Amino acid sequence: MKKELFSEIKNKIYKYVKASRLRDAFGLCRQLAEGNMVWEITDRLNETEDSYRRLLSYVASGANDPERDKMTAEIGETILSITDSLERLNNRRDDPALYYSMIRYRQTASAQPLVQMLADYRKQCSESSLFDMLASGNHSQRFVTTAAEREAAEREIFNALWTEFPLGHIGRDTLRDFLTDGVVPEYAVSLFVWAIVLGGLEFYDPVRLEILCEIYLNGSSRNTAIALVGLMILLYKWRNRRLSTRLSNLLATVREHPDWPSDVRTVYMELTRTRDTDRISAKIRDEIVPEMMKLRPDIERKFSNPSAQPFNPEELEENPEWQEIIEQSGLGDKLKEMSEIQEEGGDIMMGTFQHLKSFPFFHEIANWFIPFHSERSEFAGVGSEGLKQVAAVFENLQFLCDSDKYSALLSLAHAPAAQRDMALSQLNAQADQFNEMRAASLETAHTDRRDIIRRQVQNLYRFFHLFRRKNEFDNPFEQGIHLVDVPVLAQDVRDTEMLTLIGEFYFSHGYWEEALTLFARIDELTEPSAALYQKTGHALMKLGRTSAALSYFEKADMLDNRSPWTLTRLGRCNAMLGHHSSALSAYERLDELQRGKPSTALAIGHAHLALRHYPEAIKAFYKALYLDEKSGKALRPLAWSLMMDKQFDQARKYYERIVSDFQPRPDDYLNMGHLALASGQIAEASNFYRLSILSRPQPAGVTVAQGEVPRANIEAFIADMTSDTDAITALGISPALIPLIIDSLIYTL
Fold it and tell me: Which pLDDT does position 601 carry in this prediction?
């Protein structure tokens, strides 16, 4: 069946199950099963439908069944599980995606069964420890060969764990023991746990979630972090699916772990931070790097070494002149901002290392998830002594995730020794700075845990954004991971302190929709708060939802009626919505709180002007001009108000001042034309209207002959005249005269 048609039927099945229309869901599911001719699935479907018929017969007989709702939900979940199996079978025939290509490969005779692969690898780990390999010398051919064979086996297991479905086929206990009994090296367990997570993103598989719970309870610090990150993402991905009884019980056990509350809070925050990674990377790429490239010639010229020694940027760090150049260029502020982002936990390394993911090493999907360790075959062999030393240093760099460590080291492998040494010294300096920051923390254990979790989130984020075949995967970070929407995590994440932390992050970084979602949840859980309503209103304004923003500013004003910030927004929203009387009231209250502010006087004047209270508007604009004469912001609305109040001489005085003291705009000449027209000076009005047309900028992409006026400028002028018709006629000008003046003027252009 074509993928598109199958997907359409699948969506209908999901809708039927959600609406408890299981009979219709069975019908469509049977259609898919018969089309695929998978008789074992058809048998399972028949058994499930028979169970549903028996349940219906009990309902029809009026029997009381306390387990009825539970059984109905389980039957619905079975239908969805069967549909998933059918979709996987349908797509594996010819879908070119890597996932299905791997499934097809594993169907060939050369592919070992997963259970056998696990047993062989476990036996290899038991018989030949890494210590034995190291004893032979990590530059020996034996070491390289053995390491390469081990890595190949690990990749095969990763691919099998990733594509096996359902994972329970190999035995839940077998897999749990394999991952937790301590025989398999820790780094390999990490790799395999990632495979379980990645496969869980393809199809809903409760066994994968159960295994992640087991790893969280029994694994090492790194593996518990991976399991936790994976568990949170999968619970969000499949938040609308029903949890099995076993999984529900396991989650209840997990919830009793003493670190669970702080771990959930940390993961939620780190997943939230990924929302800002693209912005940070763009800032580095578009602002900081170009500025540094601009400065480089000046720096090298000013600090050139007469002895012709290589230019060493480290020497400049202690030089005050270097700091002066940085500050004068404006780059200092940007670097300071990046430093603050890094201290807050922002991912500033993504932009640095994203261009170093093209090595063949990253063509293998498993290599995106393998923890960094210096015993890799890439860093061993004859002539690799220097690289091995660098790899050993990299193992202790806590501020880089595994993926970035491999990127950096593979890049250095192709660099001259001098550049390698310089890069190594700079990385050591970064490591020292990171360690100092960590040592200064009062909560070192918590900081270490947070850093471990952060690096795992970064590993996953890089895969979904930088893998060369990333478009074949459903990126969980694309729309954000909002754990607040996961029903089973309700009691864990709907804590006001946690929600406030996440909401403030979204708000401070300008992610308004996400902030609104969190603010709404906080509002449900807390007493009414003026500050919360202010932020909600501000976010709504940023999204252009002015009417909704106004309602929240009104709520904030009810709770705190002496907030200048709230009154300013109340006035602005009302003005934007045309509620000028309400806007005037807000601005007058603001003026009582903060007397003598020119911006408030200006706002009051505009409100009176919109209400055609010309004398009051004139008074307010005079006040604004008195308080802030230098900027001239009040001149234009004052001149217009005087004209509309028919004080033509005074209006002309201020329009002439605008033209002489400030850069005149096309609308200034337009208004002076109106003034001349109202004064009966038609020829002078035509001259000003002509200046209004000629002073307009030439439209982009439009070429006109020399001396010719662009038609777009004329049309814009006509539109302005049309919109001002009511004002002009209010000055006593006949409406019939306006089109005549326009045509007369155009003839002369």
Answer: 97
